[in-house]
UniProtKB/TrEMBL annotation:
One Gene Ontology cellular component: membrane
Top-rank taxon, per record: Eukaryota
Lineage of producing organism: Eukaryota, Viridiplantae, Streptophyta, Embryophyta, Tracheophyta
Cell compartment(s), UniProt: Membrane
Organism (species): Prunus yedoensis var. nudiflora
CDD domains listed in its UniProt record: ABC_6TM_exporters
Gene3D superfamilies per UniProt: ABC transporter type 1, transmembrane domain
Domain named ABC transmembrane type-1: residues: 66-325
Name used for this protein in its record: ABC transporter B family member 29 chloroplastic isoform X2
Length: 347
């Protein structure tokens, strides 16, 4: 009979050492490479100067152009028409160049804002998401995506107004003063009325836009809440209840956005009414006050300068309305970086 020797199992170790993987806080994780400073708006200055210079040369040539048409001088008409065409083409190229740089600056700024806000969101504790007064994940996603895109439009409108519109406004005002100081004075009296109306309507647009942002954010938060819990909804036969709640949120969003679109459509029409009123007043004033000394070529140049003067004013009004429309989005986005959870005390 063979003997089988059984070796005893090895004794357990006296101590067990577990190597924990170190936890890396957000501050120690490698960060993506961000631009050290926001993109400069200096590249827009050359195309802006080209655009304004082209306009300042186009206005007097249009007056001469109308005079040559009356005199039926084909050779001079051809030369002046070619010069006007070159100036218009130069302005179109300069405007495209200018807007390309502006969109680059606006979108890069929004990229930096999104990165900074999301970094702050990642550093928050759980109370930020689940505590009393916390922010839902759907609302956070909407703020960082859709509302940040609205900020890009607002920044573009503001950047497009600061330097280009200011230079064009000064150049066209100088042209109008050189042609007819009297009619320029009439324009200076009427144009502030347009600015006051734009400011008044812009305040109303801001209130309506704030309601629209809150309604679409509530809808986004609801969908983010109910879709992951669709099995729970079906298990409790709550489809009709959730559908009624969804229809109410959608109807609220429809009402607020429709009111916002109507206001945005109304503001340009009011500006156009004032614009054509100024044109009519200037035409009548030219006949009454300057009938003996104001030639048709000068009138054509003055009206052309007025048209290009109204354009930057409309741009300023549009930028102001975009700012009032985008202010709620800017405030809601940066609220994510200033969140303070509320404490609850039980007696």
């Amino acid at each position: 009979m063979s003997l089988i020797s059984l070796n005893p199992p090895p004794s357990p170790p006296r101590s067990l050492y577990l190597k924990h993987k170190p936890l890396h806080p957000i501050s120690t994780l490698p960060k993506p490479k961000l631009p050290q400073k926001p993109p400069s708006t200096n590249p827009i200055i050359p195309p802006t100067l080209v655009s304004v210079y082209s306009l300042s040369k186009t206005v007097p040539k249009i007056g001469k152009f109308s005079t040559f048409i009356e005199n039926l001088d084909p050779i001079t008409l051809k030369n002046e028409g070619l010069a006007v065409g070159v100036l218009v083409l130069a302005r179109l190229v300069a405007v495209y160049w200018q807007q390309a740089f502006l969109w680059d600056a606006a979108l890069n700024a929004v990229y930096r804002v999104r990165a900074a806000v999301f970094e702050k969101v990642l550093e928050r504790d759980l109370e930020f998401f689940e505590g009393y007064g916390g922010v839902s994940s759907g609302d956070i996603a909407y703020r960082i995506t859709a509302e940040a895109s609205d900020i890009a439009d607002t920044l573009f409108a503001l950047l497009n107004t600061t330097v280009p519109s200011a230079l064009q406004l000064l150049a066209m005002a100088a042209q109008m003063l050189a042609i007819s100081p009297l009619l320029s004075l009439i324009s200076a009296v009427v144009i502030p009325c347009m600015a006051l109306i734009i400011i008044r309507l812009g305040g109303k647009l801001r209130k309506i836009s704030n309601k629209a942002h809150l309604s679409i954010a509530a809808l986004s938060a609801y969908l983010n809440e109910v879709l992951p819990a669709i099995l729970f909804v079906k298990a409790n036969n709550a489809e009709l209840c959730e559908f009624a709640r969804f229809r109410k949120l959608v109807h609220d969003d429809l009402s607020t956005h429709l009111e916002k679109k109507k206001m945005k459509a109304l503001i340009p029409q009011i500006v156009q009414i004032i614009y054509f009123g100024v044109l009519f007043m200037l035409c009548a004033g030219s006949l009454v006050f300057s009938s003996s000394s104001f030639v048709s070529g000068g009138m054509a140049s003055f009206v052309t300068a007025l048209i290009f003067l109204i354009e930057p004013i409309q741009g300023v009004g549009k930028a102001y309305n975009e700012l009032k429309q985008g202010e709620p989005a800017i405030e809601r986005l940066f609220e994510l970086t200033r969140f303070k959870p509320m404490d609850i005390f039980f007696s």
